[in-house]
Amino acid sequence: MIVFRSILFNIAFYLNLVGRMIIFSPYFFLVNRKAAWSVPKNWVRANHWLQAKIAGTTFEIEGLENIPEGSYIFAPKHQSFWDAYGLLPWLDDPVYILKRELTWIPLFGQYIRKMRMIPVNRGARGKVMAAVLERTKREMESGRQLIIYPEGTRRSPGAPPSYKYGIARLYRDLQVPVVPVVMHPGLFWPRRKFLRFPGHFKVQILPAIPAGMDPDAFMDHLTEVMETASDKLLVETVAANPHLPLREDARRRLAELGAAPSGAQAD
Description:
By secondary structure, the protein is of the alpha/beta class. Helices cover 45% and strands 13% of the residues. The chain has nine helices and seven strands. The chain has helices at 2-30, 33-36, 38-55, 82-85, 108-114, 127-141, 166-174, 215-240, 248-256; strands spanning 57-62, 72-76, 94-99, 118-120, 145-147, 178-183, 199-205. A seven-stranded mixed sheet has the order 1-7-6-2-5-3-4. The longest helix has 29 residues, at 2-30. InterPro entries: Plipid/glycerol_acylTrfase.
């Protein structure tokens, strides 16, 4: 049944994406950028509905009151494709720094440019990266929220932390608060897997870290608060969803925390 529901959800997910891009593109490109956000945000809401109805996966958000007004760096855990889009409806005017190759995708690239995302050549250094920082500063001065994944790439639930110092440099240079976010959607939407598991998970938005800390002290604090909250939430999520198959990283971390893994070993 999980295989069937996963296939059905994946089909519905991509039909929802392609269909909305075709149907709503005239509106998207004719209105101003802030109004155009309604198109991707409604796409996200539809995905949440599809995932709940077809795959049986639901979620809740705790800590929305911790989101400050104006500009800030939004720093979530990154485990699956879900957290690349799942929280967009709760952000006013987000911006991503993303690899420039995404702007080359037909139609999707035009969407990215319309929303003034910041493309970057990941192998670039020096003047190119300085230009990216200046562009980011301009976007933040207009009240936008920069989404940065502190560990850079997707990590499986329970994997050892691997925080990149780039977020500390941005924190220092942009002089805005950082909002840490922990969650474990990777237990329900594993990376590089088509299976979508039913259950319920929490997204926890932690108190914002004010601007102005020493970058090294900030990095230590960010790592500590995120990992402490993430460990606690991992134990809670697995206990509330004992049917979940657990991969080795999650099983190992639960054992280290003294919480007996209750899920079956995943492939």
